[in-house]
Amino acid sequence: MLALEQYRLDNGLRVVLNEDHSAPLVAINLWYHVGSKNERPGRTGFAHLFEHMLFSGSEHVGNNEHFRHVQSVGGVLNGTTFFDRTNYFETLPSNYLALGLWLESDRLGFFLPALTKEKLDIQREVVKEERRQRYDNVPYGTAFERLLRLAYPADYPYHWPTIGSMEDLGAASLDDIREFFSAWYRPDNCTLTIVGDFSSAEAKTLVEQYFGDLPSGGSFPPFTAQRAPLGYENRETFASHVQLPRLYRLYHLPKMGDPEWIHADLLTTILATDKASRLDRALVHEKQIAQDVATYVLPTEATGMIMLQATAREGVQIEEIEAAIDEEIARLSLDGITEDELTRAKNRAEIEFAHQIETFDARADLLGMMSTYFGDPTMVDRWLDPYRAATSDDLAHVARNFLIPENRVTSLFVPES
Amino acid sequence: MPIDRTTAPSPTAPRPYHFPHITRKTLPNGLRLLIAENHNAPLVSLRALVRSGADHDTEQTAGLASLTADLLDEGAGSRDAIQLAEEVGILGGALGTGADWDASYISLDVLSRNFEPSSAIFGDVTVRPTLPADGLERVRAERLTEILQQRDEPAAIAGKRFANLLYGTGAYGNSVIGNADSVARHTIDDVRRFYKQHYLPNNSAIVVSGDVDSTGALELIERVLGAWEPGPELPRPTVSHRPIDASRIYVIDRPQAVQSEIRVGHIGVARSSEDYFPLSVMNAIFGGVFNSRINLNLRERHGYTYGARSQFAFRRQPGPFVIAAPVRNEVTRESVSEMIAELRRIRTGDIEDGEMDDTKNYLMGVFPATVQTASDIAGRLVDMELYGLPEDYFDRYRETIAAITKDDIARVAQKYLDPDRVLIVIVGNASQIREPLGTLGIPIHDLDIDGNRLVVG
After folding, report:
1. Out of B151, B257, B369, whose CB is closest to A76?
2. Most buried by CB count within 10 Å: which residue of A133, A151, A190, A348?
3. Across the interface, do A93 and B289 touch by the CB < 8 Å criterion?
4. Percent of chain B at pLDDT above 90?
5. Mean pLDDT by 10 residues, chain B (457 residues)
């Protein structure tokens, strides 16, 4: 059991504290419950662009000073954006707890006065370069984007990736930024987690001093989108500048934390992790038709998904890869899995979880996630329970009901002729 | 009373940090053991360090060290590859093997309650790998495919061409995994010979870190690896580089590119250099951290790139110094020009107090955050062994950095950076970038993806 304390400030800010004096460090982590799913068509990429803007200074912290303040005392920091949330975090020598809280509270409470067109223009260019570097200038870079397009209708907010489109990035205005900030960047939309070498009394005083007087807002725009099942497999073949064909698939799934999602998490481990896993063994090790296979579930809140990919060896047709994958999935659905496989998958879940608890920063991030998605950071103590309780029937159920053609989309990347 | 938000709050008194105590022992067969306890999580990291890596590869055998390491988990003791993976999985472990220029490595991260049975598997992978011929064929095919895939990856192409131009076709000039010709040539006898010559206890060290009892761990490892037979150590080959008489630009055309992958650099220094610490501080100021000059210039001032960095690759023998950034096509010339201008500027010794203090404080303060896990600590002990660092290295780290002055920075910048003799490698859209690059006044050569010189009409 982790020694957790949780409470709310009057303005709605949720605070999670976990004292741990094993190293003279403190991890500060803020989860804002806003991500690319809160964007609208025509303004995609906004939540992420916004994350960049939050490092460009606030009323009492100059441009690039946020980085400087943290790094100049030996801290590390970053932020990330995904469909459902944006997080900001720093790990500092523990005697600098107040510095971290000052910085984070300043950009939450005093961001807009420091916003300028010039800063927006620079960060817009940086994000466009990020898109070029990670999506447009590398082989298979747009695969995830293409899958999402196949999997969700244009008005469902998982239809577009977090990076957004070049066109929308170009169109973002200062007013858009102000509006987005006011709607979402509020204490009552945030969990502040602190893990490490501090005293609870000291932390509570500092949190109240720096965050207590920040105003909360009115009601949040509701999230009402519902995913309607397509009822058939949406597929495409995409010729691009790649050396080898690669199959990409997305299977729909209930949202993160639901029993089927947890069972699917174990099932993907059984399908593809090490040489003894089903797809690795059949496609990579025995038939030797694939270079690599990978499959995993995504930590998403509105609806869940399993990702699967496999790269063909030189001279192997993608159809052969796809048939071999489907054969293995059919075998799994028909014959189920062995107790040995289940034990290995559970052990892996346990070791991955242990790694997340091991560092202050990863632990703080996990607590922020539990608090944001499930409203309860103490869920961290029970997180592995449903994994431990899972049976081979539970996993076979997921295989039979979710790993089926009408529940999936497929994008086949093939070399241009 | 409301808090004063106008200035950064002062720190409280710093709390002490101590690197974990290291228990050491050298076994009669020459194997060195290092154990560090850390009970934060129920995890143990086991590492074997074999002090021979791809630096032993020649033009003919390029990729052999890495291939040998890759085959270690294709079967060990009485287990074949699948059985090995199954056993590791049952113990809640993750097994890894690999090589870099300096050394070969085996790693096993496990749940601490399974440390004892895991150490037996670890011993078999280290001392009794089966190195099967069919495993070689499978891994060879994987390697060849990987090499093929890299032909589409601009960063991989740029890295390979840069290394090749600097070091030729011997060690450091190839890729660690070799090239299509050399990988096609390796036989299982080559692999077994490499293993036999280099995987010796007197050429190796074992590191255990995490949730263990030092005395018990020491005894266990001794039981598992004490009978490993020593042998004669091979001398370390010398790595040589080609001198650069004047700056040159090498363009590798990638017609579909929407960014240029730029590498600018030259030879660096070995890890054992007496200037290691001043160079580390200098590089951090120049391009080693987010708020470094190169990144602030190219990313935050100009918006040319998502990130620009510089690095000295500190290896057993001098690795390269490289500035790297992907930038959009239209600003390729400007980016190269800014990189060279920054090289000139840092050599003038014009260093602000703020950036000097910030950088030193960063390097001194960040250390505890980088050694939180059993695996992090194991990595530091491996470094210590590999580079022969003194036993008090991590305890004296802070004071060593603290003593570095601006004069030291200027001195090492002048000694080790040479803006007039750099290799500039650019993988990008030649039709868009070549003409602007011409105005830099630096000769331009066109290469194909394999490094062959092209004559462009």
Report:
1. B369
2. A190
3. no
4. 93
5. 90 92 97 95 96 95 97 97 96 96 97 95 98 96 94 95 94 94 97 98 98 97 97 92 96 94 98 97 96 94 94 97 97 98 96 94 93 95 96 91 96 98 98 96 95 73
- Taking 70 as the pLDDT cut, the residues of chain A under it are none
Report pLDDT for B457.
43
Residues B311-332: pLDDT tens digits?
999 999 999 999 999 999 999 9
Our CA-based measurement puts residue A371 at a distance from the nearest CA of chain B, in whole angstroms, of 22
Q: Is there a single domain that holds both residue B83 and residue B177?
A: yes
Over the stretch B255-299, which tens digit does the pLDDT of each residue have? 989 999 999 999 999 999 999 999 999 999 999 998 899 999 999
For residue B290, the Cα-to-chain-centroid distance in whole angstroms is: 19
Amino acid at B132: P
Question: Is A307 in the B-facing interface, judged by CB distances under 8 Å?
Answer: no
Is residue B326 located within the same domain as residue B376? yes
On whether any CB of chain A is under 8 Å from the CB of B92, the answer is yes
* Claim to verify: residue B185 and residue B305 sit in the same structural domain: no
Whether residue B148 lies within 8 A of chain A, CB to CB, comes out as yes
Give yes or no for a contact between A150 and A133, defined as CB atoms under 8 angstroms apart: no
Among B139, B120, B121, residue whose Cα is nearest residue B74: B139
Cα of A169 to nearest chain B Cα, Å: 14
Contact A64 B12 (CB under 8 A): no
Dist CA B110 CA A269 (whole Å) = 17
Question: Looking at the structure, do residues A323 and A355 belong to the same domain, yes or no?
Answer: yes
- Whole-angstrom Cα distance, residue A98 to residue A199? 12
Domain range holding B425? Answer: 248-454
Return all residues near B255 (Cβ < 8 A) that are at least 6 apart. B429, B430, B431
- When CB atoms are compared, the residue of A72, A129, A284 closest to B358 is A72
**CA proximity to A28, closest of A126, A108, A83:** A108
Q: Does B403 touch chain A (CB under 8 A)?
A: no
Q: How far apart are CA A408 and CA A178, in angstroms?
A: 38
Tell me if B7 is assigned to some domain: no
> Which CATH number belongs to the domain containing residue A185 in this structure?
3.30.830.10
Q: Domain count of chain A? A: 2
Q: Do A132 and B111 touch (CB under 8 A)?
A: no
Q: Any chain A CB within 8 A of the CB of B15? A: yes
Cβ atoms < 10 Å from Cβ of B105: 20
Residue A219 forms part of a structural domain:
no
Cβ–Cβ under 8 Å, residues B297 and B342: yes
Residues 6+ apart with CB under 8 A from A317: A245
Contact B144 A314 (CB under 8 A): yes
Residue A126 C-alpha, separation from nearest chain B C-alpha, in angstroms: 5
Min Cα separation B135/chain A (Å): 9
Locate the chain B residue with the closest alpha carbon to A348.
Answer: B92
**Residue B190 and residue B63 in contact, taking contact as beta carbons nearer than 8 Å:** no
pTM of the model: 0.94
| Contact criterion met (CB below 8 Å) for A37 and A158 | yes
> Which residue of chain A is at minimal alpha-carbon distance from B20?
A23
Mutation for testing the B interface, residue in A21, A48, A266, A351 having most B CBs under 10 Å? A351
**Residue B323 — φ and ψ, nearest 5°?**
-100, 135
For residue B266, list its beta bridge partners: B321
